[in-house]
């Protein structure tokens, strides 16, 4: 399984970015896809996940600002729409996937998101 992420960049506070992640390879068991992030000096943390059937899960810090979505149940492309970005959202964002949220076995290369104040 390979995960290809894109869409990071530099944006001012209050701005928006959209991240994309496409999975390829033996994808039949990728029931959950999502995004994690790691800021300098901090541990990697969950941002948002989405199960194949649709249930979503968000970190409290991004609820109401970020939206995870996929085109349909069959697709293995997920998006993270990030609105009202804050400097605290600055981090390397990683796409991840796996059979369950407790077994996110696959990770893509990170994409940098920088929010300036």
Report on the architecture of this protein:
- There is one protein chain.
- Strand 7 (66-70) and strand 8 (77-82) form a beta hairpin.
- The strands form two sheets. Strands 2, 4, 5, 6, 9, 10 and 11 form a seven-stranded mixed β-sheet that branches. The protein has a four-stranded antiparallel β-sheet with strand order 1-3-8-7, with no helix packed on it.
- The mean pLDDT is 93.
- It is built from no helices and eleven strands.
- It is mostly beta strands.
- It has strands at residues 2-6, 9-12, 17-24, 32-38, 45-51, 56-58, 66-70, 77-82, 91-98, 106-107, 111-116.
Give the gist of this structure.
The protein has strands at 2-6, 9-12, 17-24, 32-38, 45-51, 56-58, 66-70, 77-82, 91-98, 106-107, 111-116.
Alpha-carbon Rg, integer:
13 Å
Task: State which percent range the strand residues make up.
Answer: over 45%
Mean pLDDT: 93
- SSE ordering: EEEEEEEEEEE
Task: Report the principal-axis shape.
Answer: globular
First-residue to last-residue Cα separation: 37 Å
Number of strands: 11
Count of discrete alpha- or pi-helical segments spanning 4 or more residues: 0
Helix content: under 10%
Main pleated-sheet profile = 7 strands, mixed
Structural class: mainly beta
Low-confidence stretches: none
């Amino acid at each position: 399984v390979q995960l290809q992420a894109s869409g990071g960049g530099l944006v001012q506070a209050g701005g928006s970015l959209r991240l994309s992640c496409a999975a390829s390879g033996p994808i039949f068991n990728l029931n959950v896809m999502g995004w994690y992030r790691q800021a300098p000096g901090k541990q990697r943390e969950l941002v948002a996940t989405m199960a194949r059937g649709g249930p979503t899960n968000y970190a409290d810090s991004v609820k109401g600002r970020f939206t995870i979505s996929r085109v349909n149940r069959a697709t293995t492309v997920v998006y993270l729409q990030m609105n009202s970005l804050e400097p605290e959202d600055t981090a390397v964002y990683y796409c991840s996937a796996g059979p369950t949220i407790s077994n996110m076995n696959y990770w893509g290369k990170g994409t940098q998101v920088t929010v300036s104040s």
